[in-house]
């Protein structure tokens, strides 16, 4: 039996609506497209989002960020056109990075300095990893569980490689991974939790500088 209505939800209309959104997404028609098409009404459309997103800020700062956001959204599209290829409707990755995150910083090096993941080049020099930080906001719309899963996969790959590494390879090893959660912040951690974000960034840059001096 096909259930067409549960607790007032019309699934027939919902399916039509979802199909329409999917079509628009796959056709690369985004909210930014609507802003560009709306002409003088653009600032009003954008204010619907900015008034909520920056409601915790003072009026002067909120207005400045609204103006800044609108000035970006109305520009000719560029990077946004990659979204439909990278993400499926609903912001689900078409090819999730978690499936290959363990290969970050572990590529084989070609003679010209470029990289490849081909196992046929195993006899050639390989990257020795680099520090990776997955940063989330405490109230992020992205699930931090994905970050912890990626961290675990990268650590497991490092441990696997070190088992058969030479003494020189062990000394050159530079891979690490960790998850940082910025308190009282949403997805835009640099804005919502700027103080803690800046502190984390300074700490990471200092660590890189210390490692560079010691190597």
Task: Describe the 3D structure.
The chain has 215 residues and is α+β, with helices and mostly antiparallel strands. It has 2 domains: 5-88, no CATH class; 130-214, no CATH class. It is built from 9 helices and 8 strands. It has helices spanning 11-26, 31-37, 42-53, 59-73, 83-86, 144-163, 167-172, 189-192, 194-214; strands at 5-6, 9-10, 87-88, 92-93, 108-109, 115-116, 131-137, 176-182. The strands form 4 sheets. Strands 1-2 form a two-stranded antiparallel sheet. It has a two-stranded antiparallel ribbon with strand order 3-4. Strands 5-6 form a two-stranded antiparallel ribbon. Strand 1 (5-6) and strand 2 (9-10) form a beta hairpin. Helix 2 crosses helix 3 and helix 3 crosses helix 4. The longest helix has 21 residues, at 194-214.
